[in-house]
Specification:
Helix content: 40-55%
Oligomer: single chain
Number of strands: 6
Largest sheet: 6 strands, mixed
CATH topology of the domain at 48-243: Aminopeptidase
Shape: globular
CATH superfamily of the domain at 48-243: Zn-dependent exopeptidases
Structural class: alpha/beta
Order of helices and strands: HHEHEHEEHEHEHHH
CATH class of the domain at 48-243: Alpha Beta
Radius of gyration: 29 Å
CATH architecture of the domain at 48-243: 3-Layer(aba) Sandwich
Length: about 290
């Protein structure tokens, strides 16, 4: 009916109507994505490093080596795409959580992507999961997670909101990606494959750039919150109480081993005392019999 009225009024009115419709279509805001957010700098944080091996005790594959390799591959990919890339560490050195946050906070037009691999006491634990804390990091986490999950054959463990130190204290949008479980034999073998690590870096880069997810594998849309996640264990970078990223492990000469030794020595001394008291009693009874 509107078209008929416009036609009756003449071609000029129809032209105005088309112009207004086109303007509304062009200027109408699109849904938020990584591409629509304004940032030119990506701070890449390779988890652990130096004496902090990452993972859990007696874990065969060192997490710190895997995270650094993926981070360096991601750095190369993003630089090729025209981003300024800053690494919190570019070698096998220890960087505290506080320093990692300070590095990211130097840049206003930046995002922080922290690369980790998971671990658990249960060998069967597997899958990829992505963490964020602030609301302005949620969409970035969703974009990266969809791409990483779409290129792997492992379980989609979802996107979770957690108050990890580097996420909670960061002044820029920050995401932590757990790229699989190094304690799982299958995922550990995958992580040792350089082509798989390159694929992880490429998919994280696609998420940062806001590229559409390839339709080769169904991915749960939106944010996914899974209850009772398997908590990772490993060395502390900094002690952050209940919100720490890892549980502490003990190196040689640590308080845990010393406490174990003291317990053993105390139990031995107790046994010696009891045995000596028993022998004394036997001697007394023998003397009384005589």
């Amino acid at each position: 009916m509107t078209v008929h009225l416009l036609c009756a009024r003449g071609p000029a009115s129809l032209l105005n109507f088309c112009a207004v419709t086109l303007a509304l279509f062009v200027l109408w805001p699109a849904p938020a994505s990584s591409a629509s957010r304004k940032f030119s700098t990506v701070v890449i944080d390779a988890g652990h490093g130096g004496f902090d091996r990452g993972g859990i005790p007696r874990q065969r594959v060192a997490e710190k080596a895997m995270t650094l390799d993926v981070a360096q591959r991601l750095q190369k990919r993003l630089r090729q795409a025209g981003y300024r890339v800053v690494m919190t560490r570019d070698s096998d050195v220890f960087i505290s959580l506080g320093e990692r946050v300070r590095i990211a906070s130097r840049y206003r037009d930046a995002i922080l992507v922290s690369v980790h691999f998971n671990s658990a006491a249960r060998v069967g634990a597997n899958g990829v999961e992505t963490y964020y804390y602030s609301n302005n990091s949620a969409q970035l986490a969703a974009d990266i997670h969809r791409h990483v999950v779409s290129s792997t054959s492992t379980e989609n463990r979802g996107i979770r909101r957690r108050g990890y130190y580097v996420l909670r204290r960061s002044s820029v949008p920050a995401v932590l990606v757990e790229c699989g479980f190094l304690t799982n034999p299958t995922e550990s073998r995958m992580a040792l494959d350089s082509s798989y690590r390159q694929r992880l870096a490429d998919r994280i880069a696609d998420g940062v750039m806001g590229k559409p997810t390839p339709p080769n594998r169904p991915v749960v849309a939106g944010l996914v919150h899974l209850p009772s996640p398997i908590r990772s264990t490993g060395n502390y970078n900094d002690f952050v109480r209940a919100e720490a990223e890892r549980r502490p492990t003990y190196r040689k000469g640590s308080s845990k081993k010393s406490s174990k030794k003291s317990k053993k020595s105390s139990s031995k001394s107790a046994k010696k005392k009891s045995s000596s008291s028993e022998t004394k009693k036997k001697k007394k009874s023998a003397a009384s019999d005589e």
